[in-house]
Amino acid sequence: MADFVFLLKNVLVVSLAMNMGLIWKISYDDDETPTFKWGGLQQKLHIHGYSFNGDKENIVEDEEEEAHVSKRSKLQATTSSRLAPDVWEIQSLVINLDHGDPTMYESFWKQRAEETTVMTSSWQHISYFSDVNNVCWFMEPGLVSAITRLHKVVGNAVTEGRHIVVGTGSSQLYQAALYALSPPNGSSPMNVVSAAPFYSSYPLMTDYLKSGLHKWAGDAYEFNNEEPYIELVTSPNNPDGFTRQEVVKGDKGILIHDLAYYWPQYTPILLPADYDIMLFTVSKSTGHAGSRIGWALVKDREIAKKMTTFIEINTIGVSKDSQIRAAKILQAVSDSCDHENQKEEESFFDYSFKLMAERWKKLREAVNKTELFSLPSFPQETCSFSGRTFGQLPAFAWLKCEGEVDDCESFLRLHNIVTRGGKHFGASMKYVRISMLSRDYEFKLLTERLPAMNK
User: Fold this and answer.
1) Which end of the chain is more exposed for a tag (fewer CB within 10 A), N or C?
2) 315 in the same domain as 349
3) Are 277 and 299 in contact (CB under 8 A)?
């Protein structure tokens, strides 16, 4: 028994000595000792010219653009205080550019935090109802006013004679429009089409509930049926950025215009859009994707009522807190564009246009340094809002792998760049969609990696 106690004491002494040595090593690490602190990696990246707009948890995130994001887009690099970040090479960090999370706008809104902060009391916004005299009875009057004013300031959409319907992002409004436009007692589901490359969410959202009201019928260029149809016109288009018009010219069609990117940081504003159903969202207009607010401008009162009914059944309205926050932000954008009241700070659209223009310049420079990739070219047009003459500056880059690379998504994944492949948009796998709206350090890594790649 005495021998056992003696042995146990020796084991404890050795264990204590080893733990003390480890603690000393962590506490007095030098350049050759892996550090367990976030500051080491942050400092290293800063030395290499990378800036950080968010907290340390934001270096690589698993953020979703919409609920449909596929499993393959969830590949991520995890930063943990339990790991030793100094052993990582900067180029081994995974950049997830699969989704269009608009984090590039963070720095602008941080500078205007005080004027755009909304404070509400616990007793406010208890009721379901906002304005019972409005077709969209759960829509806050302040948001109606902010939306109407912003469209008038920018000149990108007609609001006179329209009913405004608010939704939980434009995705819900899209589904509400399909519900409103599909005959309830049709002999077969309503065909839904869009010209390829089309937004990858359209097929998923159209068929998700396997509704008998409507079905995804594919590429509008290939739709030749004499049956009734709904055509989705996204302009500027997601993913390729081009201005779009309807493709199917049949007399049995109904159009939905998705104008999420028809704002002056992405495209020249030529005329106020004047269509029967127009969809917009704060996620791409101001960058506030997390607020989940979108709106539709609808000419026909009965269609607006049916869309409202869908949202009423689906979610019993839309969060008033989000609406009030969105109204505050949209008013701030309009204020920043009001030259009479404008302070020395640049307007939101001036800031975001310059940022997009600079990013596109750097991306084209990076692509031009290699023969592996190509990007689309856009015609120059004069914007009625800003007076600038420029080509499209899309929120996504429609990148093509040239030569022998047939699967561009897989090729870029080998270089730790996660994108969304062309097959999800009804196009060739030689194409990928890359978000241009990420944080600065991610975009910088992208423009450094592309020219350095080999087949």
Assistant:
1) N
2) no
3) yes
